[in-house]
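Q: I'm writing up a methods section and want to include an example of the input and output format. Could you take the sequence below and give the corresponding predicted structure tokens, formatted cleanly so I can copy it straight into the document?
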Amino acid sequence: MDFLPAGIYSSIEQRAMGKEEQIKAAEGGGKESDYKQVAKDMEALFAYQLLKVMRETSENMSSEEKGEGHDTYMSLFDMELSRLLAERGFGLQDSMVRFISRMDQAGSESHE
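A: Here is the clean output for your methods example:
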């Protein structure tokens, strides 16, 4: 069951891709905040995928009948929960920001 409500996954993916392009285009002091936003979006996407797989696993063990719209509601719930988890952070953001910063520095040094 790989069901996603229309636009959920693509919305986060587009925001993350848009931020990556902004980071590449940006010069100066705004980069650090852009890095943090990209890391937060990626952490939210990771949390969503984690919640989705955990829910699928637990639902496969249940014999309980689900009504119409249950999957849609639970996907929306998981999306909001993953956004809230990313707001608080659970440890990946700092590592991602450091990695993106190093990659950006290495890229700009190779172009000099």
